[in-house]
Amino acid sequence: MDEEKQPFNRYTQPADFEKLTSIVSAEFQLEECLIEKMVPTYYLKQPQETKKAFLKLLKNLETMNLIALLRRKNGRIVLKIVPKPPTKPSNIMVNWILFFATIATTFITGYMLSLGLVEEGAMSNPFIGGATFTIAIMAILGTHEMGHKLTADK
């Protein structure tokens, strides 16, 4: 199999494992280094600050198409290096359909909520209530989703 289908086997070879170990040891104090089930695994000495070191390690591994997983297991801190999972491109048509469905359903909700106000004479047109409600909800949703995007892009 080629390297694309088996991107990780090479990091279990001694020379590449040593290279990976040197990258990890530049950021962390290591207690033990081994390969468990074809996955380079590192047990970290405790106590040590892990957040900044972990973020720096992720950045270094990015060029190798790898990611790190940091977990606590049986009272020990374990760092595993695994291949970055492939991401498939999103279908833009599905995104647009969901966007317009959200606009339509929020408009319908706003329209239905406005009917009671029209009956009481507090509003003259339920379409204006539906549009106002849609704009307000879409502004809230847009701001919320933009927060996710900005956080993910860090």
Any key phrases for this structure?
154 residues, alpha+beta, Hypothetical Protein Ta0175, Chain: A, domain 2, 2 domains, four-stranded antiparallel β-sheet, 4 helices, elongated, disordered N terminus
Helices, strands, pairings?
Blueprint: H1 14-25, E1 30-36, E2 39-44, H2 51-62, E3 66-73, E4 76-83, H3 92-120, H4 126-152
Antiparallel strand pairs: 1-2, 2-4, 3-4
Structural account:
With 154 residues, this protein is of the alpha+beta class. The chain folds into two domains: 9-83, Alpha-Beta Complex (Hypothetical Protein Ta0175, Chain: A, domain 2); 92-152, no CATH class. Helix content is 52%, strand content 19%. The protein has four helices and four strands, in the order H-E-E-H-E-E-H-H. It has helices spanning 14-25, 51-62, 92-120, 126-152; strands at 30-36, 39-44, 66-73, 76-83. It has a four-stranded antiparallel beta sheet, covered by helices on one side. The longest helix has 29 residues, at 92-120. It starts with 13 loop residues before the first helix and ends with a helix.
